[in-house]
Automatic annotation (TrEMBL):
Gene3D superfamilies per the UniProt record, alphabetical: Beta Polymerase, domain 2
Domain Polymerase nucleotidyl transferase per the UniProt entry, residue ranges: 9-51
InterPro entries (UniProt xref): NT_sf (IPR043519), Polymerase_NTP_transf_dom (IPR002934)
Organism the protein comes from: Rotaria sordida
UniProt-recorded name of the protein: Polymerase nucleotidyl transferase domain-containing protein
GO molecular function, one term: nucleotidyltransferase activity
Domain of life where this protein originates: Eukaryota
Parts forming coiled coils: none
């Protein structure tokens, strides 16, 4: 964790100096909560002035920042994920990961800030030139985050749609599409189990989740019927756990699954 703390300190100083491109920066994730470990990634959201930012120039400047530090901090590799506006930095021989999210609007901070469950803004705000970030974060902390019943409803409807898509891929003998969509459905099911277990904090990507081997996906279409049947039965078992809420939706979900099994002759 000592190496990550050094990286955070160097980046914070760099962002403070970079007045032309950086308006603000916040540390999110486990380090933002003060719970970082040697295995933790570093996650930072930046508020940038877009017309002042050339991503190649910015990346090179960040690389140069670490070039004269100890070997464990040197940036060995970078990946720019344009669709996510995320710059991934890999430091030293251990490839310690720093993720920089380059945003142009304060509203883009909301998703990952809220999912990080940060409460002490003094610890997570690295740069805030005009006090705009603090004001925005204080406001969104007053908003509700992930109403449990709404999330259950969203997950059930998503699972139903993905189950039909998975089944359709099997009917079309598209092995890769079956494998791919099956895994999307399974992830939504893992999230549903997590929420039904009374947890909400990391529902977007539940940590340490254990999935039975009979729920794993396959590209072998000869075995796809059994895998899909197992997935549907697992979903039905989770519906049994939902008491006193969404009774109409649960019944519709059960009927949908039964019709899906009949349509595709899955016994």
């Amino acid at each position: 964790m000592e190496q990550q703390e050094k990286i955070i300190k160097l980046l914070a100083e760099f962002f403070r100096r970079d007045t032309k491109r950086i308006q603000g920066a916040i540390l999110i994730g486990s380090f933002g909560r003060g719970e970082g470990s040697p295995a933790s990634d570093i996650d930072i959201e930046l508020l940038i002035i877009e017309d002042k930012l050339d991503i190649d120039e910015f990346t090179n400047d960040v690389i140069q920042l670490f070039n004269h530090t100890e070997e464990s901090l040197v940036v060995k590799h970078t990946i720019w994920l344009a669709n996510q506006r995320k710059l991934a930095l890999y430091h030293g021989p251990q490839l310690i990961l720093t993720e920089l999210y380059l945003y142009t609007q304060l509203s883009q901070f909301n998703k990952y800030f809220l999912s990080s469950r940060l409460t002490d803004l003094r610890k997570c705000i690295l740069v805030d030139r005009q006090d705009l970030i603090r004001q925005h974060l204080e406001y969104i902390l007053t908003l509700p985050y992930d109403n449990r019943n709404d999330l259950i409803r969203e997950l059930i409807t998503n699972i139903l749609f993905q189950l039909e898509s998975t089944s359709s891929a099997r009917r079309r003998n598209d092995a890769y599409k079956f494998y791919f969509i099956y895994n999307i459905t399974l992830h939504a099911l893992v999230r549903l189990v997590y929420v039904l277990d009374g947890k909400m904090e990391y529902n977007y990507n539940p940590p340490q989740s254990i999935v039975n081997s009979d729920l794993s996906s396959t590209m072998n279409l000869d075995k796809s019927e059994l895998h899909l049947k197992n997935l549907i039965n697992f979903f039905l078992a989770q519906l049994d756990r939902i008491k006193n809420v969404e009774t109409v939706l649960v019944k519709k979900a059960r009927d949908f699954c039964q019709d899906l099994l009949k349509r595709d002759s899955i016994s």
